[in-house]
Amino acid sequence: MPRLLTPIPGPRSLRLAARRADAVSAGVASTLPVYIDHAEDGLLVDVDGNRLIDLASGIAVTGVGNPAPRVAEAVHGQIDRFSHTCFMVTPYEGYVEVCERLNALTPGTHAKRSALFNSGSEAVENAVKIARLVTGRAPVVVFDHAYHGRTNLTLALTAKTTPYKQGFGPFAPEVYRVPMSYPYRDGLSGPDAAARVLDLVEKQVGPPACVLIEPIQGEGGFIEPAPGFLAALAAWCRDRGALFVADEIQTGFCRTGAWFACEHERVVPDLVTTAKGIAGGLPLAAVTGRAELMDAVHPGGLGGTYGGNPVACAAALGAIDTMAELDLNAAARRIGATALPRLRAALGGRGDVRGRGAMLAVEFAEQTPEVARRVAASCHAAGVVVLTCGTHGNVIRLLPPLVIPEELLAEGLAVLEHAIVEGVGR
Ligand SMILES: *Cc1c(COP(=O)(O)O)cnc(C)c1O
After folding, report:
1. Cβ atoms 212, 142 nearer than 8 A
2. Does the beta carbon of 250 lie inside 6 Å of ligand 1?
3. Residue 251 Cβ contacting ligand 1 at under 6 Å
4. Long-range contacts (CB closer than 8 Å, 24 or more residues apart) made by 406-409
5. Is residue 281 within 6 Å of ligand 1 at its C-beta?
6. What domains appear along the chain, each with residue ranges and CATH number?
7. From the CB of 158, is ligand 1 less than 6 Å away?
8. Would the CB of 247 count as within 6 Å of ligand 1?
């Protein structure tokens, strides 16, 4: 049976797109406007019956599968018991259990505490609040190409203007941006790239509340800093009484072949933010950190009506069980081992192929978006969902479900390889 029954998007999707234009703000955009009816085993099935190969997982969210049986079961079980009480009014066990799991799974064996929120942006905002409160300092150091969300404070932390920040300011103050370690472009060793950053911070900022960094950058281009960069920053933070905050929202929960990407560099952050992959698609986010920091906050200082919703917590427990039972760290490493050599062969010397586990990128050498756009468009037309990213829009990124069947991954990669070869004109 062919995967595609109509052109992409098909007639039913086009009718929904017309309704959408009259109902949904134009400010919310979609990468591939096919309207989804259901999902199964690495496929998204649209309202026209087209079966698309999912190499995006809804931006690194449904790594455990979509739907994932244990997540679905946990959600059904919870929603039939109660849907909400507000943890700040009358608490429940699921919230406590998610925090216990996060405390055990995040890097470091020290005593930890967690607090739960609804979105990645909200988690990052709260990490900054905590860092400022415990240090009594205002400055936050962030990096070129960083992405930390779309709320006002997190837009100040995010690097890229168009489309995220354009026209939406003024942004929150006391945010200082420094160069990221970007081996493909800067050729610096990790320690040299860190020395460049720390010299700037010492001279222009002084000791900050925190250094906030994605251990592998996501929206900014899947940039993996040179070895030693993160460790040097973390050591400097320790020395200067600043918190080292790892934003693991995109990299966490087995995506890179480890529970958290900091593990690859043996770095233990003071605070970790998580979201995306945490709950198999339900909205949940967290800040996890050293007990003495997390407990320094006055009662009532952290929270929110929906934060740690019981259904989302049940989903997270189902998702985390799935990751452990199916060993999705090993699955992520297998995906990387399959994809990297194939993508390198397709791209030749026309850029950089990189990635850890199932967080994979093809960066085209030209720092303009045209080639990546063309490659993504031809994948989409062939029914393969891929995303672009990067400050220059010149990166194709892959975030396949960690449970994707091998043949489906191979089929998706074949489409992408063909698109790359055509796209760079080899
Ligand atoms: C997606 C993302 C965020 C923001 O998360 P939302 O849930 O979209 O608010 C923050 N940091 C990183 C690294 C992300 O990838």
Report:
1. yes
2. yes
3. no
4. 406/338, 408/41, 408/42, 408/43, 408/53, 409/42, 409/335, 409/338, 409/339
5. no
6. 11-54+327-425 (3.90.1150.10), 70-325 (3.40.640.10)
7. no
8. yes
* Residue 74 confidence (pLDDT): 98
The two tokens of residue 371 are 């080639």
pTM: 0.98
Residue 237: strand, helix, or coil: helix
Distance CA 352, CA 343 (A): 10
Which amino acid does the sequence have at 386? V
Q: Output DSSP code: residue 165.
A: I
Per-residue pLDDT of 152-176, as tens digits, reads 999 999 999 999 999 999 999 999 9
Reply yes or no on whether the pLDDT at 426 is more than 80.
Answer: no
pLDDT tens digit string along 17-72?
999 999 999 999 999 999 999 999 899 999 999 999 999 999 999 999 999 999 99
Residue whose CB lies within 8 A of the most ligand 1 atoms, among 250, 389, 399, for a mutation test: 250
Sheet strands side by side (includes 51-54):
36-40, 43-46, 51-54, 384-385
Q: Which atom of ligand 1 is nearest to the CA of 59?
A: 1
CB distance 224 to ligand 1 below 6 Å = no
Handedness of CA 393, 44, 259, 208 (dihedral sign): positive
Nearest atom in ligand 1 to the alpha carbon of residue 150 is 9
Place of tokens 């063909």: 418
User: What's the CA-to-centroid distance between 353 and ligand 1, angstroms?
Assistant: 23
